[in-house]
Amino acid sequence: MRRHRWPAQPPPATGGTEVHGPTVLAAHQGLTLQLNDITAYPSGMQLRLVLTATGRCAELAHHETRSLTDPEDYSGHWSYLSVFVTVGDIEGEADPYHPVTRSIRARPPTEYRTLPHYWVGTCQDSDALTLTAGWEEVGLPPTTTTIELGPNPYLPSTSHSE
Question: What's the CA dihedral at 70, 50, 1, 10 to 10 degrees?
Fold first, then answer.
């Protein structure tokens, strides 16, 4: 298995074909993590996740990401959803490139919602992707899911008709 880090970068501006739709990855009291979709491109795949927290989990998530929402907070401690992806023989951590975060402004915050996107810059001939995501600081233990992918239209077909 080769180790890799998927950098925070967006997918190509045009094109792309959805190869997997919405799936709930984890549901715990006060936390839900969902895969919105996976879109294939000639040079890789985009993964779009949605994490929703309520109650105490929302308070913790808001606190852990305060440096993203409060530019005046210079404290050094913060955290975010950790995502590891395995495709074919490559595995590694993925950095979000579009971590849109929304908190309902109440004291304390009653809901926290983030919509991170991840770019996996490889186009391997693999029928599955393994995704491990967790955010222990807010109560989401690492959860591993193997996702069966639809055919990637950008890879040459391996079957031959006679």
Answer: -70
Q: How many CA atoms lie within 13 A of 142 on its CB side?
A: 9
Contact 112, 80 (CB under 8 A): no
Residue 102 CB coordination number (10 Å): 12
**Burial call 35-64: b when 16+ CB within 10 Å, e when fewer:** beebbbbeebbbbbbbbbbbbebbbbbbbb
State residue 159's pLDDT score.
44
Other beta carbons within 10 Å of 34: 17
Structure tokens at 43: 């040079």
Q: Report the distance separating Cα 13 and Cα 81, nearest Å.
A: 25
Residue 4 has pLDDT above 70, yes or no: yes
Strands in 128-135's sheet, in edge-to-edge order, are 2-6, 90-94, 82-87, 128-135, 140-148
92 phi and psi angles, rounded to 5 deg: 175, 170
What spatial distance separates the first Cα and last Cα of the chain, rounded to whole Å? 35
Q: Which residues contact 71 (CB under 8 A, 6 or more apart)?
A: none
Band (pLDDT 50/70/90 cuts) for residue 103 is low
